[in-house]
Amino acid sequence: MIIRTGTVRDWSFISQLALEAITYSASPFRGISDEHVVNYRRQSMSGFWSWVQRSQSKVFIAEDKERLGYLILNDRAMDELTGLSQAWVMDIAVKKEHWSRGVGRKLLETAEEYCRANGITYLGLAVTTANKRAAALYEKMGFNEERKLMIKKLN
User: Fold this and answer.
1) What's the pTM value of the predicted model, to 2 decimals?
2) Predicted local distance difference test score (pLDDT) of residue 149
3) The domain 2-140 is classified under which CATH number: 3.90.1150.10, 3.30.70.100, 3.40.50.2300, 3.40.630.30?
4) Bridge partner list, 70
5) For residue 122, which of 71, 80, 75, 87 has the smallest C-alpha distance?
6) Of 3, 38, 94, 119, which has the fewest beta carbons less than 10 angstroms from its beta carbon?
7) From CA 124, how far away is CA 26, in angstroms rounded?
8) In what order do the strands lie in the sheet with 58-63?
């Protein structure tokens, strides 16, 4: 498996995998259908590649004869509480048939290597509590819980 820099030619792959993967990350707390989540994701993805280019975010593609997954890294983010610069994993997804084969780990390791090489001290990401597989990987790789996003249904 190799990790390479993504280009606009990868956008079709990224957007399709993003639609497939979003249902694994959606919180069941909201009580909405997978169809609703996918439709919302489709809408939000419409301008995402333009944002990637404008923000000069980095795109990494994992492949081994075919594309297996991707990671989008904003290396110019800032922590909202401290003002410290950091990199932020905007999105990461791996094809389901390639789960538990080290693809996500390799993508994250590549992001970490990029950050170290560019003097970036902190790397952040967000994961829903429902996505236990991803959270377990992140914890194994040394990510620590720093904040909790809490929500209350009012009616």
Assistant:
1) 0.93
2) 85
3) 3.40.630.30
4) 61, 93
5) 87
6) 119
7) 19
8) 2-5, 58-63, 67-78, 85-94, 123-124
Compute the radius of gyration of the chain from its Cα atoms.
Answer: 16
Round to whole Å and give the CA distance between 16 and 70.
11
Question: DSSP secondary structure string, the chain?
Answer: -EEEE--GGGHHHHHHHHHHHHHHHS-GGG---HHHHHHHHHHHHTTHHHHHHHTT-EEEEEESSSEEEEEEEEEEEE-TTT--EEEEEEEEEE-GGGTTTTHHHHHHHHHHHHHHHTT---EE----TT-HHHHHHHHHTT-------------
Question: What is the pLDDT, as a whole number, of residue 153?
Answer: 85
pLDDT digits 0-9 by tens, 74-88: 999 999 999 999 999
Domain ranges of the chain: 2-140
The answer to whether residues 130 and 28 touch, using CB atoms and an 8 Å cutoff, is: yes
